[in-house]
Amino acid sequence: MDNPDTSPRPTGQPDLSRRSVLRGGAALGAAVGMTSVSGPATAAPGTTRSPRLVLAHGGHTAYRIVVGTAEGPVVRHAADELAAYLREITSATFPVVVTDELPDSDHLLVVGRHNAVAAGFAIDANDLSDDGFALRTFDPRRAGPGRSVLIAGASDRGTLYGVYWVLDRLCGVRWFAPDHTVVPKRRRLALRVDDLNGDHTPRFRFREVFAADGVDPAYRQHNLLNGSSHHVRDLPVPAEIDTWSDYWPYEAHNFHHIVTDQDLWAGGQLKAMHPATREQAAVELVRRIEAKVANGRDASYGFSQMDWGWTPDPDSQTFADAHGGALSAPIIDMLNDVVARVRERIPQARLGTLAYQFSFQPPTDLPVSEHVVITAAPIEADFAHPLISARNEAIGSGLETWARLSANVVVWTYNTNFQNYLLPFPNWWAMCSSVRQLAELGVQGYFGQGAWDNGGGAELAHLRLWVLARLLWDPDLDADALIREFLDGYYGAAGKDVYAYMRLLAAAVEETGAALPCFISTLAPPYLTFDVVRRADALLDRAERKVRHDPTLLRHVQILRLGLDMVILLRRNAFHRAAKDEGVSWDPDLDRRIARFNAALDASGMTAFREELGGKGLGNPEWLRTLASLRPAPAAPPPEVIGRPDSEWIDYQELDFTLWPLTTWVVEDEKASSGYAVRMPGNTPDWGVQVPLSLLPRNGAWRLYAVVRAETNGADSTAPALTVGVYPPFGNEITVLVGELSDGEYHTVELPGSYRHDSADMLWVAPPNSDQVRYVYVDRVFAIKA
After folding, report:
1. Each residue of 141-178: pLDDT tens digit?
2. What pLDDT was estimated at residue 618?
3. Is there a contact between 520 and 555 (Cβ–Cβ < 8 Å)?
4. How many C-alpha atoms does 420 have within 13 Å on its Cβ side?
5. Domain named Alpha glucuronidase N-terminal: which ranges (predicted)?
6. Would you state the torsion angle of the CA atoms of residues 57, 60, 64, 65, taken in this order, to the nearest 10 degrees?
7. Res. 426: pLDDT tops 80
8. In this structure, what are the phi and psi dihedrals at residue 148, rounded to the nearest 5 degrees?
9. Contact indicator for 272, 255 with CB cutoff of 8 Å
C-alpha cells in the first residue's frame, strides 16, 4: 500500500458518511426471531466435506454487508474493511448497508452485535471474553442454516477482530508489516461453512509486542494485538480503531511517586509493612484512578517498585523471612492491603505490581488478591532457551509459582539485545516455545519488549511481531510453519535462504552453548564465529540475488542484512586474522558492503541502534555509521615489535575495540598509526575503550600495551591524564600523569604482568573525569608474546 497508515480503499467503496439506509424486506427481528442454531451446518448425507459459501465469482457477488444503525465507528470501520479487502481479493463490489431492517436476501454478511441476528443466536459475551467473536451462518428468511454470515464480537473490538480473522485466516490476507500487506487474488472466493460457524477467543487476554517496528496502530489491530501501553498509548489513533485492552495496569517504577513521604522510604523502596505507607498509597491511588476514570479510562493503576534494588527495613525483612525469604512477600502483602482500601472508594479498582529482579522470587503461602495483576519480568533469563527449561531453572520455577499464587499474571519478556538492536539474536524458536509454556501455566497476558525506542529496522522485528501475534491468539499453532510463512510472504523467493540463515545461527547458539541474555555488550558472542558468519553471509548473498529485480523484496533482504553486515564491518580485522589462521581466502567486499549498509540503514528508518536510556543519544545511528564506514590505512608496526616474527605480536585497532557510544567517537588523526584514533572527553569516567582478552590467541601468555595521548591544555603536570587497566580484578591499572603526555604525542603504556585468552577479562582505557584534560586519544593496543 502507498500509505502504511491506512487500509486499502478500492475505487467505488461506499462512503460511510453518505451511505443511504436501504429500506424494504423483512425486519431483522422478524426474520430471525426463532433462530437458535449455534453450531456448524451439517454436510450432505454420506459426505464428510463441509459445504462452501461462494462469496464472489468472476468479479461479481450477490452479497451485501449489513451493519445496524446502533453500531459505533469501530464496527462500521470493520464493515468498511471487510468490503474493501473482499473487493481487492475478488474485484467484486460488496455494498455496505446501514439498516435495522433486513434486505430480502440470503446473501448477507452481518457485522456487529447490535442487531436482531446476533440477539437471535443468544451469543454469550462472557464466553467470548474481551476480544472474542462468534461466526454463524443463517438464513434470514427462515430458521436454520443458510448462506448468510454473522460476525459478532463480545465488544466492538471483538467484532473488528472477527472481521480481520475472517479476512486473514479464511481469505488469505496477510498483514506482514505496516507497509507490506499481501492480498490474494481469487476469481472464485468460496469459504467452508464449518469455518464460518463457531466461537473464537484468544488464549491470552492481553497481547502486546512492544517494538517500534510495530507501533503503527492499524498494523497491530490487523494482527489482533490489543495492547497499547507506555508511550504508545499517547500516540494519535483514528477513532475507528482506537480500542485497546485495559486489562494490564502497566505503570511501573513508581513507589516513590505514589508515596512521597521520604520517612516511609527504606533501602531504595518503601517500608512496605508500615501502616502509614499503605494509607498514603491508598489515598494517592484513589486520586489517580478517579482522574483516570473521569477521562474515560479503566479503574486500574500500577503500584510498582523503583528500578533498582532493595535493602529492606527490619519489619519488611522479617515478613520476607517468614515467607521463604522472598522480598516480594512484603510487597504483595502491601498490594493486597492497599487494593482492598482503594476498592472501598472505587469498587471496580484493580492494581498491578512487578515481580522483577529482587522481587521476582515468589513468596511461599501468600496468595495474591484477585484484584492485583502480577507482572512477572524474567530479565535474567537466557533467551536462547524457553523460559521453562534446564537453562532457566530458577526462572521457570518462579513463573510456575506466580501462576499458582495469582489468577492474573502478565509476563513481561524480552525479545532483543538492548545493547545493539541489529545484532543477530537467534531466540526465534525458543521465543515461540515460551509462549506455549506460558499458555499452559494459565498466564493471562504477554508483553514482549523489543527494540521499543528506535524508529524501525531492528533485527527481524516484523517476523517476531507477526509470529507472536498468531501464537498469542492460538499457542497450539505450528511455530516453525508460521516462521516459514512469514519469510515466504515478506521476502518472497529469498524466504528459503533467510530461513536457512536463521537455522544456521540458531544451530550455532546450540552447538556453542552460548547464552542469549537481553544485554550482549560485544559484537563477538560465541555463536558468531568466522565460519558461521561467512556461511551466513553466503546465504544472504544468495537471498539477495533471488530478489534483485524486485525493489521491495530486495529492500527487505538488505535491511535484514544490516546486522550481519555490521558484524562483518566492525569485526573485519578479527575475521582477517581468522581467515589467515584457517588458510581461507576471504574478501569482505568493503566498498559494496559499506554502501549497502549505509543505504539499508537509511531505508530502515532506525533512530537508535541500542536502548536510549532517557534519550541521551546513546544509540545514535550516525555513530554506528561512522564506525562501519572506516577505511583505515595500513598501520606500521610499533617500534617495540621491530625484528619480531608476525606470530609473536598482534595489533588491535579501532575496529577491534568495544567502544562506549555515548562519549567515545572514532576520529581522523594524522598522528595515529592508521589515520584514525578513538577520542574521549577528559571530563567523563567511562571505560570508553575496552579490548576483550578473548581476542588474544588461545595458547600462550601475552604482554599488553596501549598507545595513547592527551590534550592536556597546560594542566598540572601531576594531575591524572588517563588510566589503563585490565579487569577483573579491580586495581590492576596504571594512571598516566599529565606531565608524561604534555607533549601531545602518542606514548606506549605497558601493563604489568602477562595475560592469556579469557572471555571474561578486558583491557580498558578511561579519561580522568577532570576538566584539566580536554581529550584522551587511543591509537592502538598491541600484544607481544611473553
Report:
1. 887 789 999 999 999 999 999 999 999 999 999 999 99
2. 80
3. no
4. 23
5. 65-164
6. 70
7. yes
8. -90, 155
9. no
Start-end of H helices in 262-363 = 275-294, 314-321, 328-345
Contact yes or no for 564/545 (Cβ under 8 A):
no
CA 721 to chain centroid: 42
Residues in the chain: 786
Rounded mean pLDDT of 442-457?
96
Looking at domain 635-785, its CATH class is mainly beta
Q: Copy the grid coordinates of residue 235.
A: 500516540
Is 323 in contact with 329 (CB distance < 8 Å)?
yes
52-201 belongs to which homologous superfamily? Answer: Chitobiase/beta-hexosaminidase domain 2-like (3.30.379.10)
Grid cell in block for residue 698: 588461545
Average pLDDT value for residue range 659-664: 86
The upper half-sphere exposure of residue 372, i.e. CA atoms within 13 Å in the direction of its Cβ, equals: 27
Closest CA to 610 of 519, 531, 533, 694: 519
3-state helix, strand, coil in the chain (%, to 5): 35, 20, 45
User: Reduced to 3 states, what is the DSSP secondary structure of residue 651?
Assistant: strand
Q: Which three cell numbers stand for residue 312?
A: 529492606
Identify which has the larger pLDDT, 128 or 485.
Answer: 485
Q: Which residues of 526-544 are buried (b: 16+ CB within 10 A; e: fewer)?
A: bbbbbebbbebbebbeebb
**Of residues 185, 229, 173, the one with CA closest to residue 89:** 185
* Cα 479 to Cα 211: distance, rounded to the nearest angstrom: 20
DSSP string of 524-586, one letter each residue: --TT--HHHHHHHHHHHHHHHHHTTT-HHHHHHHHHHHHHHHHHHHHTHHHHHHHHHHHT---
Task: Show the cell assigned to 593.
Answer: 558492503
pLDDT for the residue numbered 15? 30
Handedness of CA 546, 552, 553, 555 (dihedral sign): positive
175-198 pLDDT tens trace: 999 999 999 999 999 999 999 999
Q: Mean of the pLDDT values across residues 326-347?
A: 98
Statement: residue 41 has pLDDT above 50: no
C-alpha grid cell for residue 343? 476498592
- Cα–Cα distance list, 53 to 107, 130, 137, 170, 192 (Å): 9, 29, 10, 12, 6
Domains of the chain by residue range:
52-201, 249-352, 635-785
pLDDT at position 49: 78
